[in-house]
Amino acid sequence: MLLTILWAIQFLFASVVLFQGALTDRVVVDWDIGYVSVNRDGINLRRAIGVNGKLPIPPIMATVGDTIELNVYNSLDKSTSVHAHGLFQRGTTHMDGPAMATQCGIPPNGTFTYIYNLEQTGTYWVHGHDNHQNSDGLRAPLVVYEKAESEPYNYDEDILLSLEDWFKEEYAERERQTLDPNESFPPPHGYGFGLINGFNGNDTEPLHFQPGKTYRLRLVNMASLMWFQFSLPGHKMQVIEVDGINTEALEVDGINIAPAQRYSVLVTAHDSNEFNYIYNATLHANFIPPSPGLTPRVYTGKIIYNPDAPQNQDTVCYECQGFKWLDDIELQSLDKEPELVADRQLEYEIGNQLFSTGQRLDHFNNVTFAHAKVPTLYTALSMGSQAMDSRVYGPQSNAVVLNHQENIELTIHNPNNMPHPLHLHGHAFQIIEYGQANSRFPIPEEFQGVATTRYVNMPVKRDTVSIPEYSYVKIRFCADNPGVWLFHCHLDIHFAMGMAMMFVEAPDVLQETLKIPNAMYEFCHTQDIATVGNAAGNKLLDFSGLQQAPTVVERVSNSSVSD
Ligand SMILES: *[C@@H]1O[C@H](CO)[C@@H](O)[C@H](O)[C@H]1NC(C)=O
Ligand SMILES: *[C@@H]1O[C@H](CO)[C@@H](O)[C@H](O)[C@H]1NC(C)=O
Ligand SMILES: *[C@@H]1O[C@H](CO)[C@@H](O)[C@H](O)[C@H]1NC(C)=O
Ligand SMILES: *[C@@H]1O[C@H](CO)[C@@H](O)[C@H](O)[C@H]1NC(C)=O
Ligand SMILES: *[C@@H]1O[C@H](CO)[C@@H](O)[C@H](O)[C@H]1NC(C)=O
Ligand SMILES: *[C@@H]1O[C@H](CO)[C@@H](O)[C@H](O)[C@H]1NC(C)=O
Ligand SMILES: [Cu+2]
């Protein structure tokens, strides 16, 4: 199989070195994280966060079984951390990256090496997980190739298409605008631009197809707010991978990719080269009202069969019955893992409402998430048997302690007028069912009477599920991976506004097995962050020193205004 990585044409892999010959191959990646000044959308020059003085950041390519050594140097004026999205980090929960969940951020001028083994194959991405730095550019695809002899699918070339949204303003300003009750909706920043492989989506290098060949396209949505509808008018797609999980091939015409989700599709080229074609990546968010020229934004890339051939002029009806959009619950995991039998069922409502601080914040079951004063993992490691009591993690962590090997069923109701892409760290979960959300408020007529859809045959697994507006989703996973795992909305602004919870999985096992490198505790000490005790750094349920948790003062109606 010939692996042609189109990205290789656009970038030099200067920072990736492969050491052969050891027991496992080491993939060494050097990231000096710092500010850069870039014009990514073709219009606005702005400050952003890049690596080694550049943005976009080259993708990381490795093979299953390799060990990643990601050397970070922090040239920013604030702390930073890096998360490998979708990797289970089995045995290495302290390498997962989210600041104040599993580590203290790496301080300015600090260095740290993230080391972990690649035990999964598929399409992932690596991104900042401190102060929402991913929104300002700190994000890159991570592809973990299967060993050639074990690859379950036949294809001739492997093509990576990374998708991003990009805004004129820095993230901090967008967050300020969103939280300001006096700003209009959508706030001024609301209309993003679309980037493909790091550049203005319409300037991307064409794809080259040859008659009879089959291409694997890897689609990674690294956006912080918006969705991409992806289609190849004139070609069919066979979905074969979702969030790193291989699936039975399913033929579709279009995929609506939520922020943080990934797909691989096989596309077989036509037998003749009499026409050239396009692909279509449409940036949109169904909660931002259409506005001509601003949203949705359609990006088209060329698929060249023959430079002299005309463009195929067939038109596609996207709204028509014959056009099939992917519904992820129809997919089946290739490993045929049967439905898990739930040992424990948890039910949550997510949403946006007015809190006692006077702000509209997001929540899980009326609790708006805020990080504790001690990284949650360090509370789990330092509290002895009390670590099994969910309350020690504090009033705003939404922490749930899970017993080792328990099967968990989570039902999340979303009685809001917008979808939320929820991401679970440390696991892929089975998607069991979608249906109409329980809601205390009237659900608009066009969303009433939505049928319940269950998986067929065997459930699919993934790590990021987009819960449609006015819907619920039921998911299951086995608590077989001791660690501290966030479960949060991957729209950065929603995460910031408190749409998050966390699972503290088998802290008793962690206490027996996990050793934190001293350098990680040092990051905390240099920033005056405690590394032992409960969420406030105190004993048991003494939370003195923590801010008072905001409470719900009024339910908003069915309409929610946040973006
Ligand atoms: C980081 O290092 C630079 C160059 O040595 C220095 O000017 C700056 O003050 C340092 N910043 C911090 C926060 O230590
Ligand atoms: C919003 O406007 C009101 C009335 O003009 C003003 O009192 C308030 O301070 C403003 N709030 C913010 C966050 O700017
Ligand atoms: C691109 O796709 C969108 C739907 O996502 C559709 O509305 C639009 O017409 C398409 N444009 C082209 C040129 O295919
Ligand atoms: C991209 O190019 C297509 C085809 O020329 C055009 O229709 C579309 O408006 C362009 N998109 C943007 C966002 O400029
Ligand atoms: C959230 O608060 C509302 C009152 O505003 C209440 O009706 C509802 O039961 C609460 N939900 C939970 C899970 O506590
Ligand atoms: C909220 O509910 C009311 C009453 O059912 C309905 O008229 C309105 O369209 C809904 N608004 C939204 C934004 O869903
Ligand atoms: Cu959300």
Automatic annotation (TrEMBL):
Pfam families: Cu-oxidase (PF00394), Cu-oxidase_2 (PF07731), Cu-oxidase_3 (PF07732). Residues 34-148, 158-285, 372-508 form the Plastocyanin-like domain. Gene3D superfamilies: Cupredoxins - blue copper proteins. Keywords: Copper, Metal-binding, Oxidoreductase, Signal. PANTHER family: LACCASE, MULTI-COPPER OXIDASE. Belongs to the multicopper oxidase family. GO terms for molecular function: copper ion binding; oxidoreductase activity. This is Cupredoxin. It comes from the Eukaryota. Residues 1-24 form the signal peptide.
